[in-house]
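[[Encoded backbone]]
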Amino acid sequence: MLTAYRPGRGPWHRMPAAPKTVLLLVLVLAVSLLPTAWPAAAIAAGACLACYASPGVGVRELARQVWALRWLVVVAFGIPCIFLGAEAALVGTVRIVAAVALAGLLALTTPVAALLDVVERALQPLRHLGVDADRAALLLVVALGTVPTLARLAQEVRSAQRARGARGIRGFVVPFLVLALRHADDLGDALTARGVR
């Protein structure tokens, strides 16, 4: 989940939240379980492209999502490349990026309130086991909102770094951690003010 909800009128936006969630979860699971082979990578990329190419979303949005995943791509490709070879690493990376982008499609085309309702309804049967469905759903929605916020903070720190002519990982990590912790603090204060414990 890389970005927040974007209003639209396409098929993904019009589809009710519950069936859309199930459909995208099945697609993500299918892409994740594909074998590590070139045909599997082509199927994963094709499924992702077909979902984003529908009216109301667009291939440009897919490109934006993939660009936001560039550091995941580096890690997902680099580490397996050392141990498994370039071909297996590339196929695995395509599958991972396709799965994450498909999951991101849910956040792109579904309002947060609708996602919250879906999660709450899905977790209702677990109330008998002591699971607080309301709190779990709120946690999920807060997590979905935090990812784009952290990406924005990282972009701000990088821009400030470039403006000062600073380089190096320490010049990025320290300010980013300070801003991320400040955001977490503010979020905690806001939830406490609303009675969430």
